[in-house]
Specification:
206 residues; alpha/beta; five-stranded mixed β-sheet; 5 strands
């Protein structure tokens, strides 16, 4: 049974040496992990940092998953988020491991924004207990159990639902087409049907 989320201080969190994104020796230090994340995931972490700055918080849809480790916690799920929060909070030991160019880039993004010092997290006593949830987050599909990414047409439809006045061109065309022709166009866009002679004849009907 997974425990309810707790509020944990960011300063108590450490990066996971067994993070699947990273390729290091078997016992890397925290400094080595920081440098590797900066090398491998810098661009994605900067985009995440910008998103956090824009909305003033982490995504409310996701908890960070932690492993108890003495008086501290290892981040099993959420290492990029921890890295981004370290940047947001201007964590000196982290910034000192980055080059001057990266430090300047971070400063330009976070200047004037409040730090986030606590996160909502689920704590596990054993790594194996968190494994199913970490896999569910990152493995594709899982027969529908995992997150199912939107396809291009679904992204356009979401944009239309939020902002009809800025309707994507694909939907502007679809929503001005009536009846079965609209269903055919939707099917073609989403890839559930292919364009063939039958489709051509159906679309040519007056």
């Amino acid at each position: 049974m997974v425990s309810m989320p707790d509020i944990i201080k960011v300063d108590l969190l450490d990066f996971d040496a067994r993070n699947a994104r990273l390729t290091l020796n078997e016992a890397p230090s925290q400094d080595e992990l920081i440098q590797e994340i900066a090398r491998v995931e810098w661009k994605s972490c900067i985009e995440l940092l910008k998103h956090i700055v824009k909305y003033g918080q982490l995504s409310p849809l996701e908890n960070i998953l932690l492993l108890s480790h003495g008086n501290r916690y290892i981040v099993l799920e959420g290492n990029r988020r921890l890295f981004a929060l370290r940047l947001l909070n201007q964590h000196k030991p982290t910034l000192q491991l980055l080059g001057e160019r990266k430090q300047t880039q971070v400063e330009s993004i976070v200047k004037g924004h409040k730090p986030i010092t606590e996160v909502r997290a689920v704590i596990f006593e054993h790594r194996v207990d968190a494994a199913p949830w970490v896999t569910l987050k990152h493995a594709s599909g899982q027969g529908g159990a995992a997150m199912k990414p939107w396809r291009a047409f679904e992204k356009d439809r979401d944009e239309y639902n939020r902002n009809p006045d800025n309707c994507p061109k694909t939907l502007a065309f679809v929503y001005t087409t009536k009846g079965s022709r609209m269903l055919l166009i939707v099917s073609l866009i989403m890839g559930t049907r292919t364009w063939n002679e039958s489709s051509r004849a159906h679309f040519s009907k007056k």
